[in-house]
């Protein structure tokens, strides 16, 4: 608990890895230090189907302190496996599941209703995959080996779907699919520098997530830029040294 | 909020910097991902005097979900400035202040009482300082420049005091003063590789904090080792694919 409002990062392994060396999670946590907690709610291998019951538990029900100021929702990498494999979630249901998360937050009759003023939402598209590298990883990193269950074109379809849901529902989208594909020169060969196993991002790849999140916050909600959020506990220079206690009361966003 | 129990890192700038690249905060956060949040409650320039009113606000009052499983208390670097300078806290009051934090947590009549079973405590000694580098940093990094206000021998006295409080109160101490001094070959020249500005740790220095914390947890409270804490939301392999919802209920430490 410990009384800071938060940014929640909700997603699959690409989010779970956010606090590993080079992940974007600690870049955000450091940017918002003294101000907001950045909470890692990434769960490796999860799809939106399995994420929904978890969402009900990680999002508090209304009017609870401390408050979530931003939810970053990043799924699709596993939903996009081809039909017949365990993780597959049909495209329409994937879109519906994302829509359900948005409605849980935005429908005033929802137990999890959070006002747009208090809680911002970002959707993120799954990055492109490099099929050869993924096939190698699945075949060698697991005992027993996994069969190849992903296609570049499928992941792209799910990325498009995230963008469509964002557009329909008025939620900004961090387009990691396009950012990484463009940075890769739109070539399969170029992907390896951002996706060492063909699926998960390294520091160079995560840097795009960090930069896009920061930029999108700045454009849409400048009050949430880390420079504009006040420290919860004031800078030491501002403590009234003669009578410290009043200046040591927590500052909160309205 | 978002419903994970937590590890709270409470201290001055050496803790505030814990999530910068190379900090120990994200090493801990990654080790405990899926299991516990690691919350940065470091405040640059703070002494134990100013930390006490903050402690009252960051530690919840009893029986509140989610629970704090470990509090890491790391002060002294600023308390140890020489008398006459703003940050100075006399040695006896420094010890009393630390004792007050411990009593807030451990005295059954305290509003902030947390049982030893539920909430572990670690004290950490301030690292040694390299006086020449600190003098240079204070004179050049600030406008107007700060006067030199620290002594190697004073910081050592406050490190000794932290160890004494830990011994008196039965709280394990992470001895960063000794760890860094020994790693520096017990020479002033050797300190620079861990303390680039003479006061704050770099990644090489923070690694000692991470390793000592992990080791101390393993020795004293093996149930809190990250390997032994269950994921709050189960590994995807353990989801009952036919009937997912029951397997997606949060797992909590007792």
From TrEMBL, chains A, B:
The keyword Nuclease does not apply. Keywords: Hydrolase. Coiled coil: none annotated. Signal peptide: none annotated. Gene3D superfamilies: SGNH hydrolase. CDD domains: Isoamyl_acetate_hydrolase_like (cd01838). One of its GO terms (molecular function) is hydrolase activity. InterPro entries: Iah1-like, SGNH_hydro, SGNH_hydro_sf. Residues 9-207 form the SGNH hydrolase-type esterase domain. Pfam families: Lipase_GDSL_2. This is GDSL Lipase/Acylhydrolase.
């Amino acid at each position: 608990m410990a009384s800071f409002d938060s940014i929640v990062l909700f997603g699959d392994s690409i989010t779970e890895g956010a606090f590993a060396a080079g992940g974007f999670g600690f870049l955000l946590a450091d940017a918002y230090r003294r101000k907001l907690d950045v909470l890692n709610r990434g769960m490796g291998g999860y799809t939106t189907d399995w994420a929904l019951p978890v969402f009900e538990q990680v999002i508090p029900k209304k009017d609870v302190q401390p408050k979530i100021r931003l939810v970053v929702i990043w799924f699709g990498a596993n939903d996009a496996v081809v039909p017949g494999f365990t993780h597959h979630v049909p495209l329409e249901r994937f879109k519906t599941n994302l829509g359900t998360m948005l409605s849980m937050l935005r429908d005033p009759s929802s137990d999890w209703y959070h006002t747009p003023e208090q809680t911002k939402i970002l959707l993120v598209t799954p990055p492109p995959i490099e099929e050869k590298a993924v096939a190698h990883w699945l075949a060698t990193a697991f005992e027993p080996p996994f069969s190849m269950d992903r296609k570049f074109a499928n992941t792209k379809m799910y990325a498009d779907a995230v963008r469509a849901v964002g557009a329909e529902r008025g939620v900004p989208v961090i387009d990691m699919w396009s950012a990484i594909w463009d940075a890769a020169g739109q070539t399969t060969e170029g992907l390896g520098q951002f996706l060492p196993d063909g699926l998960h991002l390294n520091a160079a790849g995560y840097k795009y997530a960090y930069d896009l999140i920061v930029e999108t916050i700045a454009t849409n909600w400048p009050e949430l830029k880390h420079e504009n959020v006040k420290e919860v506990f004031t800078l030491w220079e501002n403590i009234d040294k003669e009578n410290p206690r009043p200046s040591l009361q927590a500052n909160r966003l309205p």
